Amino acid sequence: MASIDLRPLDTVDAIHEAARVLDRVWGERGTMPANILRALERAGNYVVGAYHGSAMIGASAAFFGPPAARSMHSHITGILDGYQGRGLGRLLKLHQRDWALERGVGHITWTFDPLIPRNAHFNLAVLGARVTAYLVDHYGEMDDEVNRGDRSDRLLVSWALAEPAAATPVDADISAVVAVPDDVAALRRLDPAAAARWRLRVRDELQGHLASGRRIGGFDRRGYLITG
Question: What's the average model confidence in pLDDT over 100-109?
Answer without folding.
Answer: 96
